[in-house]
Amino acid sequence: MVFKAGMIVLDSDGILRCVEPRAKRVGADRPPRVDSLPSPHPRPAECVCFMFTGLVESLGKVVAVVPEPPGFRLVLEAAGIAADAALGDSVCVSGCCLSVVRIDGDRLEFQLGPETLARTTLGGLAAGSRVNLERSLRLSDRLGGHLVTGHVDGLGRLAGRRDEGDWTTCRFAAARELLAQMASKGSVAIDGVSLTVVDVDHETFSVALIPHTLAVTTLGGLVEGSGVNLETDLVFKYVARWLAASGLGAA
Prior knowledge:
Blueprint: E1 7-10, E2 16-21, E3 46-50, E4 58-68, E5 71-77, H1 79-82, E6 90-93, E7 96-104, E8 107-112, H2 114-119, E9 130-135, E10 154-164, E11 167-174, H3 176-179, E12 187-190, E13 193-200, E14 204-209, H4 211-216, E15 227-232, H5 234-245
Antiparallel strand pairs: 1-2, 2-3, 4-5, 4-9, 5-8, 6-7, 6-9, 7-8, 10-11, 10-15, 11-14, 12-13, 12-15, 13-14
Protein backbone atom coordinates (compact mmCIF):
# COMPACT_ATOMS: atom_id res chain seq x y z
CA MET A 1 0.00 0.00 0.00
CA VAL A 2 1.30 3.45 -0.91
CA PHE A 3 0.36 6.32 1.40
CA LYS A 4 0.08 9.70 -0.26
CA ALA A 5 1.00 11.30 3.05
CA GLY A 6 4.64 10.34 2.53
CA MET A 7 7.14 7.61 1.79
CA ILE A 8 10.52 6.28 2.91
CA VAL A 9 13.30 6.39 0.33
CA LEU A 10 16.96 5.33 0.13
CA ASP A 11 19.54 7.91 -1.00
CA SER A 12 22.83 7.23 -2.83
CA ASP A 13 24.74 7.05 0.48
CA GLY A 14 22.59 4.21 1.78
CA ILE A 15 20.76 6.46 4.26
CA LEU A 16 17.03 6.07 4.83
CA ARG A 17 15.01 9.27 4.52
CA CYS A 18 11.36 10.06 5.01
CA VAL A 19 9.89 12.23 2.23
CA GLU A 20 6.79 14.15 3.23
CA PRO A 21 4.74 17.06 1.90
CA ARG A 22 6.43 20.30 2.87
CA ALA A 23 5.37 21.54 6.29
CA LYS A 24 7.06 23.43 9.06
CA ARG A 25 8.35 20.62 11.24
CA VAL A 26 10.20 20.72 14.52
CA GLY A 27 13.84 19.71 14.13
CA ALA A 28 14.15 21.03 10.58
CA ASP A 29 16.77 23.69 11.45
CA ARG A 30 19.38 22.61 8.94
CA PRO A 31 21.52 24.52 6.42
CA PRO A 32 20.34 24.26 2.80
CA ARG A 33 21.73 21.33 0.83
CA VAL A 34 22.98 21.72 -2.76
CA ASP A 35 19.95 19.90 -4.14
CA SER A 36 17.62 22.32 -2.36
CA LEU A 37 19.00 25.48 -4.02
CA PRO A 38 16.95 27.26 -6.70
CA SER A 39 17.02 25.40 -10.00
CA PRO A 40 15.79 26.19 -13.52
CA HIS A 41 13.85 22.92 -13.21
CA PRO A 42 12.04 23.19 -9.86
CA ARG A 43 11.40 19.98 -7.97
CA PRO A 44 8.13 19.19 -6.16
CA ALA A 45 7.91 20.77 -2.71
CA GLU A 46 9.22 18.20 -0.26
CA CYS A 47 10.51 18.02 3.30
CA VAL A 48 13.32 15.47 3.56
CA CYS A 49 14.31 14.06 6.92
CA PHE A 50 16.85 11.47 7.96
CA MET A 51 15.82 8.36 9.88
CA PHE A 52 16.96 7.09 13.28
CA THR A 53 16.29 3.99 15.38
CA GLY A 54 15.87 5.43 18.86
CA LEU A 55 18.92 3.52 20.11
CA VAL A 56 21.15 6.11 21.78
CA GLU A 57 24.81 5.83 20.76
CA SER A 58 26.29 8.10 23.41
CA LEU A 59 25.61 10.83 25.92
CA GLY A 60 26.72 14.32 24.96
CA LYS A 61 27.47 17.20 27.30
CA VAL A 62 26.53 20.80 26.61
CA VAL A 63 29.69 22.94 26.56
CA ALA A 64 28.03 26.23 25.65
CA VAL A 65 24.79 27.81 24.51
CA VAL A 66 25.68 30.80 22.33
CA PRO A 67 22.90 33.31 21.51
CA GLU A 68 22.38 33.83 17.77
CA PRO A 69 19.04 35.69 17.62
CA PRO A 70 16.40 34.60 16.96
CA GLY A 71 17.94 31.22 17.90
CA PHE A 72 21.15 29.97 19.43
CA ARG A 73 24.19 27.81 18.70
CA LEU A 74 24.53 24.62 20.70
CA VAL A 75 28.07 23.36 21.38
CA LEU A 76 28.31 19.75 22.53
CA GLU A 77 31.11 17.52 23.77
CA ALA A 78 30.33 14.44 21.66
CA ALA A 79 33.39 12.19 21.76
CA GLY A 80 31.27 9.11 21.05
CA ILE A 81 30.21 10.24 17.55
CA ALA A 82 32.43 13.19 16.57
CA ALA A 83 35.32 11.16 15.16
CA ASP A 84 33.64 10.37 11.84
CA ALA A 85 31.20 13.29 11.75
CA ALA A 86 31.03 15.57 8.70
CA LEU A 87 29.53 19.01 8.18
CA GLY A 88 25.85 18.73 7.38
CA ASP A 89 25.44 15.33 9.06
CA SER A 90 22.12 14.79 10.81
CA VAL A 91 22.23 13.91 14.50
CA CYS A 92 19.28 13.16 16.75
CA VAL A 93 19.84 15.30 19.86
CA SER A 94 17.47 14.18 22.63
CA GLY A 95 14.84 13.38 20.03
CA CYS A 96 15.34 16.39 17.74
CA CYS A 97 17.03 16.08 14.33
CA LEU A 98 19.75 18.74 13.96
CA SER A 99 22.53 19.33 11.43
CA VAL A 100 26.21 19.63 12.28
CA VAL A 101 27.44 23.13 11.35
CA ARG A 102 30.94 23.01 12.88
CA ILE A 103 33.35 20.36 14.13
CA ASP A 104 36.19 21.08 16.54
CA GLY A 105 37.86 17.86 17.69
CA ASP A 106 35.35 16.07 19.93
CA ARG A 107 32.98 19.03 19.83
CA LEU A 108 30.01 19.37 17.51
CA GLU A 109 28.02 22.56 16.95
CA PHE A 110 24.40 22.95 15.88
CA GLN A 111 22.15 25.93 15.18
CA LEU A 112 18.63 25.93 16.64
CA GLY A 113 15.88 28.20 15.34
CA PRO A 114 12.89 29.69 17.18
CA GLU A 115 10.48 26.91 16.12
CA THR A 116 12.67 24.22 17.66
CA LEU A 117 13.29 26.28 20.81
CA ALA A 118 9.58 26.91 21.28
CA ARG A 119 8.36 23.35 20.71
CA THR A 120 11.05 21.16 22.29
CA THR A 121 12.93 20.97 25.58
CA LEU A 122 16.19 22.03 23.90
CA GLY A 123 15.50 25.67 24.68
CA GLY A 124 16.09 24.88 28.35
CA LEU A 125 19.58 23.43 27.88
CA ALA A 126 22.52 25.02 29.70
CA ALA A 127 26.23 24.31 30.09
CA GLY A 128 26.63 20.94 31.78
CA SER A 129 23.31 19.50 30.57
CA ARG A 130 23.36 15.98 29.15
CA VAL A 131 21.73 15.00 25.86
CA ASN A 132 21.09 11.72 24.03
CA LEU A 133 22.91 11.39 20.69
CA GLU A 134 22.31 9.15 17.69
CA ARG A 135 23.61 9.38 14.12
CA SER A 136 21.28 8.81 11.15
CA LEU A 137 20.47 5.29 10.04
CA ARG A 138 22.06 3.52 7.06
CA LEU A 139 20.32 0.68 5.22
CA SER A 140 23.01 -1.76 6.39
CA ASP A 141 22.35 -0.94 10.08
CA ARG A 142 20.23 -3.10 12.37
CA LEU A 143 16.85 -1.56 13.16
CA GLY A 144 16.95 -2.49 16.84
CA GLY A 145 14.44 0.16 17.94
CA HIS A 146 11.80 1.60 15.59
CA LEU A 147 11.71 4.20 12.81
CA VAL A 148 12.27 7.64 14.34
CA THR A 149 12.38 10.86 12.28
CA GLY A 150 13.68 13.31 14.89
CA HIS A 151 10.59 15.50 14.37
CA VAL A 152 9.19 16.16 17.83
CA ASP A 153 5.39 15.84 17.95
CA GLY A 154 4.95 17.43 21.36
CA LEU A 155 6.11 17.65 24.93
CA GLY A 156 5.45 15.29 27.81
CA ARG A 157 6.05 15.64 31.54
CA LEU A 158 7.06 12.97 34.04
CA ALA A 159 4.00 12.51 36.26
CA GLY A 160 5.32 9.67 38.38
CA ARG A 161 8.29 7.37 38.81
CA ARG A 162 8.36 4.00 40.57
CA ASP A 163 11.79 2.50 41.23
CA GLU A 164 11.85 -1.26 41.82
CA GLY A 165 15.41 -2.41 42.45
CA ASP A 166 17.41 -1.57 39.33
CA TRP A 167 14.26 -1.16 37.23
CA THR A 168 12.03 1.90 36.88
CA THR A 169 8.51 2.47 35.62
CA CYS A 170 7.79 6.02 34.47
CA ARG A 171 4.38 7.54 33.79
CA PHE A 172 4.22 10.61 31.55
CA ALA A 173 1.44 13.14 31.03
CA ALA A 174 0.91 14.27 27.44
CA ALA A 175 -1.64 15.97 25.19
CA ARG A 176 -4.67 13.84 24.30
CA GLU A 177 -3.93 14.02 20.57
CA LEU A 178 -0.54 12.41 21.22
CA LEU A 179 -1.97 9.78 23.56
CA ALA A 180 -4.47 8.86 20.84
CA GLN A 181 -1.47 7.88 18.69
CA MET A 182 -0.18 5.39 21.27
CA ALA A 183 -1.18 1.82 22.09
CA SER A 184 -0.11 -0.74 24.65
CA LYS A 185 2.94 -2.64 23.31
CA GLY A 186 3.38 0.04 20.63
CA SER A 187 6.45 2.25 20.19
CA VAL A 188 7.19 5.79 21.34
CA ALA A 189 10.38 7.87 21.34
CA ILE A 190 11.08 9.78 24.56
CA ASP A 191 13.99 12.24 24.25
CA GLY A 192 15.10 10.17 21.27
CA VAL A 193 14.99 6.82 23.12
CA SER A 194 12.90 4.06 21.53
CA LEU A 195 10.61 2.53 24.16
CA THR A 196 7.62 0.21 24.35
CA VAL A 197 4.39 1.61 25.79
CA VAL A 198 3.16 -0.42 28.77
CA ASP A 199 -0.27 1.18 29.03
CA VAL A 200 -2.03 4.36 28.01
CA ASP A 201 -5.18 6.20 29.10
CA HIS A 202 -6.75 9.59 28.30
CA GLU A 203 -4.18 11.58 30.29
CA THR A 204 -0.98 9.54 30.69
CA PHE A 205 1.09 6.63 29.40
CA SER A 206 3.76 4.50 31.03
CA VAL A 207 7.01 2.82 30.01
CA ALA A 208 9.34 0.42 31.83
CA LEU A 209 13.05 1.26 31.82
CA ILE A 210 15.67 -1.46 32.17
CA PRO A 211 18.91 -0.78 34.08
CA HIS A 212 20.91 -0.36 30.84
CA THR A 213 18.58 2.36 29.53
CA LEU A 214 18.71 4.16 32.87
CA ALA A 215 22.53 4.06 32.80
CA VAL A 216 23.29 5.10 29.21
CA THR A 217 20.59 7.72 28.51
CA THR A 218 19.32 10.88 30.16
CA LEU A 219 16.13 9.11 31.24
CA GLY A 220 17.79 7.80 34.38
CA GLY A 221 18.09 11.36 35.71
CA LEU A 222 14.46 12.36 35.24
CA VAL A 223 12.50 13.56 38.26
CA GLU A 224 8.80 14.28 38.62
CA GLY A 225 7.96 17.37 36.59
CA SER A 226 10.82 16.90 34.09
CA GLY A 227 9.86 17.77 30.52
CA VAL A 228 10.61 15.40 27.63
CA ASN A 229 10.37 15.42 23.83
CA LEU A 230 7.85 12.95 22.40
CA GLU A 231 7.60 11.43 18.94
CA THR A 232 4.80 8.96 18.27
CA ASP A 233 5.02 6.03 15.90
CA LEU A 234 5.59 7.02 12.26
CA VAL A 235 3.60 4.13 10.79
CA PHE A 236 0.59 4.99 12.97
CA LYS A 237 0.58 8.58 11.67
CA TYR A 238 0.67 7.47 8.02
CA VAL A 239 -2.10 4.91 8.53
CA ALA A 240 -4.24 7.45 10.41
CA ARG A 241 -3.67 10.06 7.69
CA TRP A 242 -4.58 7.61 4.94
CA LEU A 243 -7.73 6.54 6.76
CA ALA A 244 -8.75 10.17 7.27
CA ALA A 245 -8.09 11.04 3.61
CA SER A 246 -10.11 8.00 2.55
CA GLY A 247 -13.01 8.91 4.80
CA LEU A 248 -12.55 5.70 6.80
CA GLY A 249 -11.51 7.22 10.11
CA ALA A 250 -10.26 10.30 11.99
CA ALA A 251 -6.63 11.45 11.95
